[in-house]
Amino acid sequence: xxxxxLYRGLIVIFFxxxxxxxxxxxxxxxENESQxxxxxxxxxxxxxxxxxxxxxxxxxxxxxxxxxxxxxxxSTLKLVALFIxxxxxxxxxxxxxxxxxxxxxxxxxxxxxxxxxxxxxSLIYLSEHHFAEGLATAQQAKQxxxxxxxxxxxxxDGNVEMGRYDSAVAYADKMVSIRPDLTSxxxxxxxxxxxxxxxxxxxxxxxxxxxGGAGDEHTEWTRVQLGHLYxxxxxxxxxxxxxxFSLSLRPNYHYALEGIARVALAANxxxxxxxxxxxxxxxxxxNSLKEExxxxxxxxxxxxxxxxxxxxxxxQLSKDSRAGMKDENIGHYSDQELAYAYLKVNNxxxxxxxxxxxxxxxxxxxxVNETVAWVYYNKGDYAKALPYINVAxxxxxxxxxxxxxxxxxxxxxxxxxxxxxLLNDAFSNNxxxxxxxxxxxxxxxxxx
Length: 448
What we know:
This protein is mostly helical. It has helices spanning 3-34, 50-68, 73-90, 93-110, 115-127, 131-144, 149-161, 165-178, 182-194, 198-211, 217-232, 236-249, 254-266, 270-281, 287-299, 303-326, 335-343, 348-361, 366-379, 382-392, 400-412, 416-426, 435-445.
């Protein structure tokens, strides 16, 4: 065979391969477009609630409307809202976000400037940690309707996640000026926390709770955030009271159960912590809950349980992450979570791999820089950790875990005075930072 014949043969093979890829892509695309999504069964006691029956009835009505008229935009967007809410309640984000995105894209295909479809699309991108895409979509929506308060909330969230904190503050101010409510006050609280103002953060979160309806999921989520702020300032009695009150208003609310478990853990009541973490885990699909259980299992010497659960978390996060890499429209970017998950099984190489991947997406975000710094610390590369922890502290956050980690890094790199200052700030309110981190910081206190 001559080179010319070989070349022609390769061209034919390449052409056939391309045709096959295109046909396969089109088939998959048509399958995705034609797929109909319904509700997944809920876990635990939430499956017996009156609210769940109401959600099921609304879903049946909306799906029936769309079967009758697939171009019914109003019903489509109501179904999208229902799926997004169900993702929050159950933790089944991958399924419901994919379902919602399918219906959103149907709307945008015929109406590219549909404001509410763009709002929902931005929200899902942010939920799945596609932060750059979520921010860009929110900016597109803002051009269509610059007077809508909610779009500014998405701009706050996107800018925070991308590490553009001054822009986030400006958008939060704009949001509050248009609509002072639960969603705007809670964002003000979060930004105050980022900038180290816990007193102001607590006040704003109280205002957010008061602006909501008691027992509503959004209100109780906000109330739980208030409890978490009390935890970070060492006021565990107030935190516990908030969590139990939330539970009385919304029985079996997994975030409230998780909060009660954390307070128990801070009091070294490991049995109670395991009971409440496990109960919360039975209600929802949430890897962060499982990771907290891993820590308690380790504290109680149940290392096999801890290893098995930690590996289960890694497997699920890896699956979500692969989905995010394969499909730019959906699929969770899980690299920051995977970095911490791998640290729990002492695989620092894999932890660093994922931390750096997330850093390349969001080099200005303080939490991402903290993650990279902490992985380098665990690898013993203290000098490499230093520039990242410097960025993590740029907003003057008073998060006790961040300050404790930073103190260890500064101690190891020779800045004992700064390490001492940060430790004093971290434990000024006797906040709980975890037994392992507390032991590490206690060990260096003798040399400061």
